[in-house]
Amino acid sequence: MKTPAHTAAASAVRSLRVRAMLNEVPKTQIARAVGVNRMTVAKHLKGEDMSLKMFISTAQAIRADPVQILADAIESTQKQEEAPGATDASE
């Protein structure tokens, strides 16, 4: 069963991935800014979870506001939970 925190984290990472693509920021550029290799960046952006340090560094590298991305993800998750007829994700 996915917790609300896991759902929000996955949403935030997806949003970060989309913003990186929309801003056309190459993974090599993100990797240099973050201090890791390109494959590490690709792995983290492809997944649903990453460390807070990696999340913030990646957001800054693509000139996105990490706080706003997280706030939007949390708000979206809360709205999904409150929606009439919302069901458990594991069902």
Characterise this structure.
The structure is a single chain. With 91 residues, this protein is mainly alpha-helical. The protein has a single domain (4-76), classed as Orthogonal Bundle (434 Repressor (Amino-terminal Domain)). The protein contains five helices and no strands. The protein has helices at residues 4-22, 27-34, 38-46, 52-61, 66-82. Helix 1 crosses helix 5 and helix 2 (27-34) crosses helix 3 (38-46). It is elongated and about 45 Å long. It comes from Bifidobacterium tissieri. This is XRE family transcriptional regulator.
Question: What are its keywords?
Answer:
mainly alpha; elongated; 91 residues; 434 Repressor (Amino-terminal Domain)
Give the SSE map.
Blueprint: H1 4-22, H2 27-34, H3 38-46, H4 52-61, H5 66-82
CATH class: Mainly Alpha
Number of E strands: 0
Question: How much strand content do the residues show?
Answer: under 5%
Q: Helix segment count?
A: 5
In the predicted model, the low-confidence regions spanning at least 5 consecutive residues are none
CATH superfamily caption: lambda repressor-like DNA-binding domains
The amount of helix comes to 55-70%
- Taking Cα atoms only, what radius of gyration do you get, to the nearest Å? 14 Å
CATH topology: 434 Repressor (Amino-terminal Domain)
Brief overview, please?
It contains 5 helices and no strands. It is mainly alpha-helical. This is XRE family transcriptional regulator.
